[in-house]
């Protein structure tokens, strides 16, 4: 009887399709893969993510998450660059998402995920490589202004 159970388990295990391996470790639901080679600009990629209206004041204080749902920092400011783009200012390199050096994260590279913001088009390792945000590098967007941000789900 034990042999029959063993053979049944062995047959089931061999019949289960294996998950494709992802470089850098065992795959799991939120492993970040390389950005798509779709030749789209960040603005075009954002447009495909169905951007929705949001009040700027509602974004301040939200956590910025990577693909593994690790908090990278909290949005401290939403600003408009001299070129007209919108960035989320997030301190990185601090303790538990607080403190650290403020960096500008372009709004086209993120999406709102409930009461969190997901970093989609910038790998986690590249976030500290962004230039430090200086307060005079752009103008703060008023808290009551409405902007558009992409939406996502997991």
Written overview of the protein:
This protein is of the alpha+beta class and 154 residues long. The protein has a single domain (40-151), classed as PRC-barrel domain (SH3 type barrels), CATH 2.30.30.240. 16% of the residues lie in helices and 31% in strands. The protein has 3 helices and 10 strands. The strands form 2 sheets. It has a 6-stranded mixed beta sheet. A 4-stranded antiparallel beta sheet has the order 6-5-4-9, with no helix packed on it. The radius of gyration is 20 Å and the shape is elongated. Mean pLDDT is 82; it is low at 16-30.
Question: What secondary-structure arrangement, pairings included, does this model have?
Answer:
Layout: H1 2-15, H2 42-47, E1 52-55, H3 56-59, E2 63-65, E3 71-74, E4 77-80, E5 86-95, E6 98-106, E7 110-112, E8 117-119, E9 139-140, E10 146-151
Parallel strand pairs: 2-8, 7-10
Antiparallel strand pairs: 1-10, 2-3, 4-5, 4-9, 5-6, 7-8
What level of helicity do the residues show?
10-25%
Any idea of the CATH class?
Mainly Beta
Radius of gyration: 20 Å
Count of domain modules: 1
Largest sheet: 6 strands, mixed
* Nearest-integer average pLDDT: 82
CATH superfamily: PRC-barrel domain
């Amino acid at each position: 009887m034990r042999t029959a159970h063993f053979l049944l388990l062995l047959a089931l295990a061999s019949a289960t399709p294996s998950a494709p391996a992802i470089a850098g470790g065992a795959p799991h639901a939120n492993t970040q893969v390389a950005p798509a080679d779709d030749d789209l600009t960040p603005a075009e990629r954002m447009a495909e993510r169905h951007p929705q209206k949001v009040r700027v004041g509602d974004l301040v204080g939200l956590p910025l998450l990577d693909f593994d749902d690790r908090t990278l920092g909290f949005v401290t400011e939403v600003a408009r660059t001299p070129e007209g783009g919108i960035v989320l200012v997030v301190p990185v390199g601090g303790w538990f998402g607080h403190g650290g050096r403020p960096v500008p994260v372009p709004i086209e590279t993120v999406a709102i995920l409930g009461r969190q913001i997901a970093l989609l088009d910038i790998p986690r390792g590249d976030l500290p490589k962004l230039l430090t945000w200086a307060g005079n590098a752009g103008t703060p967007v008023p808290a009551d202004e409405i902007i558009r941000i992409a939406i996502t789900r997991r």
